[in-house]
Amino acid sequence: MKKIGYTTKEKATEKIELGKDKVQESFFPIFNSDKADTENNKKRLREFLGLEITPDIKNIYCFDDIIGIDSDYMFSFNCDAETSEKIIQKHHLEKDEHSESAFGLQHNFSWWNKEEIAKLDLYSWNKNHQYFKYYWYDEKNKKSYYFEFTM
Questions:
Q1: pLDDT in tens, 75-113
Q2: Which structural domain range is residue 13 located in?
Q3: Burial of 128 from C-beta contacts in 10 A (0-12 / 13-18 / 19+)
Q4: What's the gap between Cα 65 and its chain centre?
Q5: What distances in angstroms separate CA 129 from CA 36, 134, 145, one per listed residue?
Q6: Organism's domain of life (predicted)?
């Protein structure tokens, strides 16, 4: 039997699991909606919001729903006001008092309280009424909510 460079079965199993996750990740990116600050959630935040994870960014939760012809992505995380302002500028979001908040499309999680979010100012961007970005920032709790979806 050819030696594969591992001294234990556990190390080999760990390497296989990492390889499996890498393959899955290339086809179906992993979102961890049940646990904060996972490496997958940090990756997704960097990809979707274009942010480096700075010390003020924590308690990162995210979720995706890509089944069907539409898709939606939800992110909740703590950050300071400066980071929130960077998000608004980077994504060309504008304060929006006219749009519906698309709460019917959003999913229910302990980290996504629609009633509390509805009290916050909505910032939005959309392209051709098909691709949308919604963002809310709770200054008191230093909490951001980002919702991206297609119709």
A1: 999 999 999 999 999 999 999 988 877 888 898 999 999
A2: 1-30
A3: exposed
A4: 11
A5: 32, 13, 21
A6: Bacteria
Counting the structural domains of the chain, the total is 2
Phi, psi of 53 (to 5 degrees): -80, 105
Phi/psi class of residue 102: alpha, beta or left (left: φ > 0; alpha: ψ in -120 to 50)? left
Residues 25, 45 within the same domain: no
pTM for the model stands at: 0.81
C-alpha to C-alpha distance for 52 and 112, rounded to whole angstroms: 22
Q: What angle do CA 107, 111, 116 make, to 5 degrees?
A: 85
Q: Whole-angstrom Cα distance, residue 147 to residue 150?
A: 10
Q: Would you give the end-to-end CA distance of the chain in angstroms?
A: 55
Rounded to whole angstroms, the Cα distance separating 67 from 64 reads 9
150 in Cβ contact with 132 (< 8 Å): yes
